Amino acid sequence: MRIEEHPILEFRKERKKINFRFNDRPVYGFEGDTIASALHALGIKKISHSINLHRPRGFYCAIGNCSSCQMIVDGVANVKTCITLLKEGMNVKVQTNKGELYDK
Amino acid sequence: MLDKDGVATIEQVRSRFPNQDIIVKPKAIIECYENIPCNPCSTSCPFDAITIGEDINNLPTLNFDKCIGCGICVYSCPGLAIMVCELVDDKVRFKISYEFIPLPKEKEMWYAVNRKGEVIGETLIEKVTLTKRQDKTALIQVLVDKKLLYEFVTIRRKL
Amino acid sequence: MISKDLVIIGGGPSGLCAAKMAAEAGVDSIIIDRNPKLGGQLIKQTHMFFGSEKQFAKTRGIDIATKIFTDTRVYSDLIEIWEDATVVGLYPDKVITILKQEKYIKIKAKAIIVATGASEKVLAFENNDLPGIYGAGAVQTLMNVYGVKPGNKIVMVGSGNIGLIVSYQLMQAGVKVISVIEASPKIGGYKVHASKLRRFGVDIITSCTIKKAIGTEAVEKIITVKLDEKWEEIPGAEEEIAVDAVCIAVGLTPLTGLLSMIGCKMKYVSELGGLVPITNNHETSVENVFVCGDASGIEEASSAIVEGYLAGLMASKKLGKVHSNYDELIKELKNQLDNLRNGPFGEKILHGLKKLGG
After folding, report:
1. For the ranges A64-73, B123-132, C92-101, which has the lowest average pLDDT?
2. Best label site of A9, B159, C103, C144, fewest CB within 10 Å?
């Protein structure tokens, strides 16, 4: 779902590939991605759950306001993945509860 | 109706055209029907042909005598609401803005499209210009049948 | 604890312009922004801007962002920038608490300019929480900043400028926009934007709203319904449309949590987008706390830029450093704002400001 060519914008072609894990699956993104944009590019839209009814949730605002995109990243809960840049080796998991302070 | 569906009425469109004896030379047709705070067409025109004035909410008025149809306003209008037209025998030459890719190529035949997005005929792509100064808004010069003078507004690729 | 004369919260056009003007007056400032890149919403605006040359008309939003940012770098000795830093608290003793890469930092400021912008409103309809239902700004961010398509066939809900502009940008990114639906009987944004969409084959349907979204893991279909002149659903006037994403463009609301926290007097003004601070020349009811841009009332980027300059001038004066062109600039900038608000689109803002008592 990546945009290759655009009439106004130039997306850098040779971007460094970044490997990371999503729910223990090896996946990848590129330098400059946020966690949420990398997942979306792979077609992964469901990235969290509502707390009580476990309804599927994706992001809504993409700029850190709505908290719909919060996931567990490297053991830390409630990370706003839409404004967190992707880093090599990140371990990203879908959060299914309010989140706990895990030991890293 | 412009307010309801974004399509100008035939009266509105015709009000932007001068008499046909004037458009034997290329002239700009400015389809700006609404008072919004905006004036790049006026400030970009190298011939001072477009006037808006101090209050930038004023609608632009075009002095057809000063206008030579250069097309600078066509790619300067943030609303992409301007085109240039010129009667050439039984045809009309238009210069329109275009911001999609892939761009048309010269000599290709594309569909001619009206303000409702309906195909109304065919058009020959005469020239495609995209200089740095145009800042990614291409200028496409096309030729259509004269009967489409008040209907033609853009092009669509034939699939 | 760090001490600073001026802290500017938010590095969008308003905050950046405030910093520049304050720097011209000789004031030291820090701009704090939670994003990895400054420029606010401008960094995703690929279209040419309106207004006049003084507000960068005809220039694409992304290029305006670069210009305004570069302007502040001229004063890099005076303007410090903290990106990836979220302000999490604003206290009455003018202490600002920040979370910056897992460090909790406190700054005591003499003056603060809050330029936090706005947040997208949500629309209530059945299953509006399904993945694939995004704010229109979110879609713009995804496409224009990260180069990712939100879907392949989309319906846009809302025909204000954001809805109309983002629909066009979706098409430029190769996404099919089936239609723009608008609950009101009239198109909300500039008609030139609407005309562009119509000529490129996008339907614009007024008196129509979204009733329900359907899908298991993400949105797959929506049900739209026509409304009568009382904005009530017309029974039986429903349509099912297959989509893989929906954009909700129903307006913005100012992000004013920090202002409430520090105790600013606030007022709900619907014309300005929601809860806004009561101000006098950009100063809130808390002394030396200023506000500018969308956080003070939803408007356009052009206004945010001018308001930023004004807030920078006011704040620096309060700090005892009066800009050498103070009087001229105040007059000129207020004139620009009047001009921007003079037309029919400015009526709503002026009405709202009157209600606010400004």
Report:
1. A64-73
2. B159
ipTM of the complex: 0.95
Domain count, chain B: 1
Report d(CA C120, CA B30) in Å as an integer. Answer: 34
Task: Judge if pTM exceeds 0.95.
Answer: no
Does the distance separating the beta carbons of B100 and C171 come in below 8 Å? yes
CA distance C329 to C283: 17
Give me the residue label for tokens 């850098």.
A12
Give which of B5, B4, B28, B7 is closest to B16, Cα–Cα. B28
Give the nearest chain C residue to B115 (CA atoms): C199
Provide, as residue numbers in chain B, all residues whose Cβ is less than 8 Å from the Cβ of C195: 2, 6-8, 31, 79, 81, 115
Query: Is B136 in contact with A5 (Cβ distance < 8 A)?
Result: no
Residues C228 and C267 occupy one common structural domain: no
Distance (Å) from the alpha carbon of A2 to chain B's nearest alpha carbon: 16
Task: Locate the chain B residue with the closest alpha carbon to A6.
Answer: B101
Q: Residue C212: which pLDDT band, with cuts at 50, 70 and 90?
A: very high
> Is C120 within 8 Å of A60 when comparing Cβ atoms?
yes
Residue C218 token pair: 């993400």
Q: Which domains does chain A have, with CATH numbers?
A: 17-93 (3.10.20.440)
> Rounded mean pLDDT of B33-56?
94
**pLDDT tens digits, C265-274:** 999 999 999 9
